Amino acid sequence: MPEVRHVREELWDEHTKEFRLRSLPTVPDVELPILRDDLSVSPGGSTVIGSVTVPPGTVLRVTYLKYLTSDPRGALFSIAQNGSAVDYPYLPSAGETIVKEGVDNPVYVLEGTVEVYLNAVFGAVSPGTVYGLVLHGYYSRQEELGGVT
Questions:
Q1: What is the mean pLDDT of the chain?
Q2: How many CB atoms lie within 10 A of CB 136?
Q3: For range 117-145, the mean pLDDT
Q4: What string of DSSP letters covers 27-92?
Q5: Which of 50 and 142 is assigned the larger pLDDT?
Q6: Would you say 107 and 134 are in contact if contact means Cβ atoms under 8 Å apart?
Q7: Chain-centre distance of CA 69, in angstroms?
């Protein structure tokens, strides 16, 4: 009788500093869709428009990010983890931007409490103007994460 072997490839994960299976998940663990048209923010201010808490001992590997606005002046969002800014997605005018990466090379690797802010740097934000952000990601175990890359 022939011998049957199953091989599951592992790769070194620079973010979690451990080997993990190369298998690709088919459904994101986290889907954070935000679409707001009821915001009122004074010039120079900011407001939280969405958040997600990453379970202890894991990191969130963000593989899809889409941000949009109907404001002709554009929009400046900020993504923060545990109170510290990680990135400032920016739109120079009305429209949308999509950033798509894979599990092996994620857009962000985040841990703890992740909050998404809308910053009113181009003047006041008033109700009726649409702002949105969509984030998809997968959880990975965390042995030791020295910093977000």
A1: 84
A2: 19
A3: 86
A4: S-SEEEEEEES---B-TT-EEEEEEEEPPTTEEEEEEEEEEEE--TT-EEEEEEETTEEEE--EES
A5: 50
A6: no
A7: 17
Query: Mean per-residue pLDDT for 138-148?
Result: 61
Nearest to 28 by CA among 58, 62, 59: 62
DSSP state of 140: E
Of 5-19, 34-48, 71-85, least confident by mean pLDDT is 5-19
Fold exhibited by the domain 28-141: Jelly Rolls (2.60.120)
Does residue 149 surpass a pLDDT of 50?
no
Q: What is the pTM of this model?
A: 0.76
Q: 20 near 11, Cβ under 8 Å?
A: yes
* Neighbour tally for 25: CB within 10 Å: 11
DSSP lists the bridge partners of residue 53 as 113
Distances (CA, A) of 84 to 50, 70, 81, 94, 127: 15, 27, 5, 27, 27
Q: Where residue 6 falls among pLDDT bands split at 50, 70, 90?
A: low
SS3 16: coil
- Give CA–CA dist 36/26, Å, rounded: 28
